[in-house]
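Q: Structure tokens for this one, please.
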Amino acid sequence: MDRTAASGGEDDGGDRLLALASLGLVGTGAEERFDRITRAAQELFEVPVAAVNLLDDHYLYTKSPQFPGTAVRNRPDTFCDVTISADELTVSPDTAADPRFSDKPDVAGGRGVRFYAGRPLHVDGHPVGTLCLYDVRPRELTRDALNRFDEMGAWAERELLDSREIEHAVTVQQALLPTISPAAPAYAVAATSAPLNGLGGDFYSWRRVGETVELTVADVMGKGVAAALMAATVRAALYSREPGSPAEQLEGTGRVLDQDLEATGIFATVFHARLDIETGAVAYADAGHGLNLLVRADGGHEQLRGSGLPLGLELSTSRRDEHATLEPGDTLVSFTDGLLELHGGTLAAFEDIARLVAEHRDPSSIVEAVKALVAEAAPDDDVTVLAVHRTRGEGS
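A: Here is the predicted structure, written as tokens:
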């Protein structure tokens, strides 16, 4: 790599920038896993500031700690530009006497930084960021301190790599969601899932089975990687079964997953339905989900309730199919409790959600309205919604 070119925001090397981009962290908000590192470094080395930074070819982005007005800086103005360009642990005991740093704004300007230590953080062998220490007085680091600093840098690198694994997992989880219409011309179908932290335990699915369409919305207890892993397991177990009634499919899935769910202490609520394309008849089984509305063409609505317990809480209970009919102009919507929370979290929220569905009707429009709500409210739970609208009476 051309170190001279890297300095000052010239050609930084496509591979390095690709490695940086693969993390999906540039411009993102504060995260406790990085703040934990900088707090520990600040205390261990007794410095006013420790930071984790990411650098592209023009800018430095402070990942931790984040303060207003300090998250993005011109790269050539920063100490870390030197560290990334040299690609080695860089220490300046007195920045005012160091020609590499003496003209930097933080030295010559009002901040008065007089000590700097920077450790490059690597991804795929490329320096993409730094762990660094700043002090307003000149000082030295002992060899033992430098070794500890290097070890803390390795900790920060592991967190960066974990970010990429999470990003990849998000891509995989999104790829498992259906994107193609179930080929039922008399119906419009759309859905969205907005996990709280990129990964979550919600999922939706649909598939054409003969002259029917299977519809599923599930919510696995918890958030993040563990919930996402179990959600994928529930989905695979459910859709690996031979087509049958919704109740039979949920019962079989529960039996297959019983030991796994018990061992992990996790349970999952599931709404699983089969829609007859010709008649609009809906047979469904509800494993503790209960968040399903049938909004009629005239604006009236009814909640599709179920008596089943969540998967993982079988307690030797049998499941049964419930029945409803999707008439022309009706919309069926199933959602997770994250959407309920966006409307206050009480039973009164069903009225608000029914009004939202009645106002939009078209599933794609309903999905866009929910996305707008999520963007505005920043909910603290995963939000998933699936909507099906019967557009006319005849079947396919």
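A few notes: The first strand starts at residue 49 and ends at 55. The chain is about 35% helix and 25% strand.
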